[in-house]
Amino acid sequence: MTVVTRFAPSPTGFLHIGGARTALFNWLYAKRMGGKFLLRIEDTDRQRSTQAAVDAILDGLTWLGLDWDGEAISQFERKDRHAEVAQQMLAAGKAYYCYASPEELEEMRAAQKAAGQPVRYDGRWRDRDPSEAPAGVKPVIRLKAPQTGQTVLQDRVQGEVTVQNAQLDDLILLRADGTPTYLLAVVVDDHDMGVTHVVRGDDHLTNTFRQIQIFNAMGWDLPEFAHIPLIHGPDGAKLSKRHGALGVDAYRDMGYLPEAIRNYLLRLGWAHGDDEIISTEQAIGWFDLEGIGRSPSRFDFAKLDNLNAHYMRAADDARLVGLIVPRLEAELGRSLGDAERDLLKRAMNGLKQRARTLVDLAQSARFYVAARPLPLDEKAAALLDEKGRTVLKQLAELFAAEADFTAATLEARVRGHAEQSGEKLGKLAQPLRAALTGSTVSPPIFEVAELLGRDEVLARMSDAAGAA
């Protein structure tokens, strides 16, 4: 048997971070089992579905590196097939026409509420002859669901879950206008696409029992189900925007790398011993449904930041340059030339050691390509008082006369000057840092000086030493 999983988002908004985790789990399981990962856009809600949302979902999955097999399937385009299956169930006596009007159904619900009963369809047209149908009323088609016994789900995550059939009513398969309901469409699509494993959030658990009844009515084999607990915020409450319930695109904008997001989402509800840093290759080799926990996981930005910092340090320098250049160009309001890009690449190893996100990285790299005179932050400006400017003038004389303009030589010269003047090295290095970077925090300052080069270093020192 070839394992076939699927991700089936509704295109009513961005690719939610919880949806991204569901897609990841399906993708990993298919990869692990040598199977297929399919993508189905559940766009039957025509009023809320938009092409912009479809594009956002495809873009988010692509950015995450979750490639799917074949073309993305539109559920709406399969509506005739869904209606055909409803008619098959009708012909087989597994479904029936219901002519109850909306007003009748509302009265029924009100009476049930008043009597303290569960609100569900009471089967009033289940065994009536269609000849009794009121004139001019277009019927819906309802499933003739079993009324006794129980429906049992052997879930790969939740274990055995049972519901009494008396608690489930005769759900609508086809609306009066001939359009299929979500529950019917999902079952037909999963069957026709050959889906063998349905891995999704446990908020679908109630739907699953109804869908099992449709599978059974059609005599179709059931896929295996695995219902994943939802993601909660750090406080244990349902994940909201303040916790991180954002679109995948927002995480990209916040400067996270896709491999870090994949690693973090993998660990939200799945474990492999005590391993925290898990490469995609390891994840494919290790992932199984049994490793998914039954308890909701908690989103933690601090852990995500730490993971992202790890992947930033491991990332290729040229790739990081390509990722931060658009951010720098937007902030500077100009394009960066080849020489500036080359400078950033040579500086990247020192820059990425401290950065947690691409936003941090771009901000820390900005001084390399900023126009003179360099803007100074408040702390850097405070260092460049009269004494600081005097230090710069003294160091400028040393630097101007130095033939070997390398980090090691420059540091040796400044240390020698510190010993002669009786100053601590930091008292000399900090004004230099302020002059060259505009900040009090940077990569090792003598490495910065070597990368900037003699002319640019002397020019920045002159700017700062001459500042009022």
What does the model show?
The structure is a single chain. The chain has 468 residues and is mainly α. The chain folds into four domains: 1-70 and 229-314, 3-Layer(aba) Sandwich (Rossmann fold), CATH 3.40.50; 78-228, 3-Layer(aba) Sandwich (Rossmann fold), CATH 3.40.50.620; 316-369; 378-465, Orthogonal Bundle (Arc Repressor Mutant, subunit A), CATH 1.10.10. Helix content is 49%, strand content 10%. The chain is built from 19 helices and twelve strands. The strands form five sheets. The chain has a three-stranded parallel beta sheet. Strands 4-5-8 form a three-stranded antiparallel beta sheet. The longest helix has 16 residues, at 17-32.
Outline the secondary-structure elements.
Layout (H helix, E strand, L loop, with lengths): L3 E4 L9 H16 L3 E6 L9 H14 L8 E2 L4 H13 L3 E4 L3 H13 L25 E4 L6 E6 L3 E6 L7 E3 L7 H11 L4 E5 L3 H14 L5 E5 L2 E2 L15 H6 L4 H10 L12 H7 L10 E2 L2 H14 L2 H16 L5 H15 L5 H12 L8 H6 L2 H16 L5 H15 L3 H13 L7 H8 L1 H12 L3
Parallel strand pairs: 1-2, 2-3, 9-10, 11-12
Antiparallel strand pairs: 4-5, 5-8, 6-7
Helix pairs in contact: 1-9, 3-5, 5-6, 8-10, 11-12, 11-13, 12-13, 12-18, 15-17, 15-19, 16-18, 17-19
